[in-house]
Design goal:
Elements: H1 2-24, H2 30-54, H3 66-78
Helix pairs in contact: 1-2
Length: 79
């Protein structure tokens, strides 16, 4: 999965660089190429990236719950 994400990211970069070049040369299909690049990034790359990063529950350390808030307030009161 990690290799697939790297390949997809490189494809996205090449795609957007090509689109930028086409926009600068005023090519008639430049806006379509850039729009499809953004669509690819939004609906293909980002969901796969988010799934890969958070599939093992790594996100749980960033969620605030009552225990973390109590500990934070206790530490703040000691300072």
């Amino acid at each position: 999965m990690k290799l697939a994400l790297k390949i997809l990211f490189i494809v996205f970069l090449v795609w957007m660089i090509t689109g930028g070049y086409l926009v600068n040369t005023a090519h008639e299909k430049a806006q379509i190429v850039m729009g499809l690049g953004v669509l690819f990034f939004s609906f293909v790359f980002m969901p796969l990236f988010i799934y890969y990063r958070y599939k093992d529950g790594k996100y749980k350390k960033y969620i605030l719950n009552d225990e973390k808030l109590r500990n934070a307030f206790k530490q703040q009161g000691k300072d």
